[in-house]
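Late entry, evening session. Most of the bench is empty. Finally got around to the prediction I had been postponing all week. Sequence below, unchanged from the version circulated by S.P.
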Amino acid sequence: MKSKHPGKPDLPTKTCAACGRPFAWRKKWAKVWAEVRYCSDRCRRKR
């Protein structure tokens, strides 16, 4: 059975502005993906 959702390798990625690690798109970021700069709340606070 084939899933209709893309696998993790097919999701868009960005690099975190604080820690420099790559992170993948998340559904909760769907509407604001263009503004997302940090991989987590911890990195956002650290900046």
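Two things to note before I forget:
The chain has a mean pLDDT of 89.
The longest helix spans residues 41-46.
Will write this up properly tomorrow.
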